[in-house]
Each structure stands twice: as structure tokens, then as C-alpha cells.
What we know:
The protein has 157 residues and is α+β, with helices and mostly antiparallel strands.
Amino acid sequence: MEVSLSKAEVKDAAAIHEMQTRAFLPLLEKYQDHETNPANETVDRTVERINQADADNYLIRYSGVAVGAVRVVRKDNATYRVGRIFILPEYQGLGIAQRVFALIERIYADAKVWELDTVMQEQRNCYLYEKLGYRRTGGTKEINDKLTLCFYEKNLV
């Protein structure tokens, strides 16, 4: 299994948007988080994200095929945030996300702290992040009566 990352450009926005919609639609249907779910974002919003100066967006490739994307946001004091990561449903469970985290940690080798958030009710995601060394900060944000975000940090110092 070969997993690779390539820096996303504006010309990739439509493909990223289509994959993002497919990846997040099951969660939208489950949690009804219409205001915050990435499946409801526009292609223009994807373009805006790609053009933001404080973030890098990558296409995730599995054996050469684009299967998702990851966004890394640079913050102060060697802190980075995984702003969003998604893998197409048919490629989930193959260890791709674990490889992506290893790759971004290598790319951003100066990182002292990594941050991310996820849906607290999605135990598979929580398990993955905890397996990768992330710890819950204790912070949460209720989106609606079905969905709560929980926040994670991984300290490398």
C-alpha cells in the first residue's frame, strides 16, 4: 500500500469538493449538522481554503488514486492543527489515515504540538486519534443535540 500526499492547488478544488461531499454525507445524514458539515460547503469555500496563506491542503493518494484530502493549519509556537482529514468511504479502514498522519508529522518536523477535533460520537475516529498519540483536552463544543465535537492534542516535546 503506497500512500502519498501532493499539495493541492486551485485546479484540484472541484475534485476535493466532490470527495469531501461523499466522505461527509453519511455524517450529515446521521447528525443533521447542516450549518457545520463539510458536505454542505460550496466549491468556492474549498477554493478559499486552498488559497489561505496559513494552511496547506494536500490530496491523499492511495496507489496513485486520489482518495481524500488533509488540511494542515500553521499556528503560533510550532503548533499545527489538522483542520480536516477525510478518506472516501470505500477506502476507509485500510490504514490510509495512519500513514497520512505519519507523513504530515514528517513534513512538519518542527511541530511541538498537534491539534484536531472530531465528532465525539464517532468512536472509530476517537480510537484512531488516541492510537496515534492524541489525548483529549477535555474541551467540547455541542453542535446540536446529536453531535458534540471533542478536542485533541498531541505534544511532541
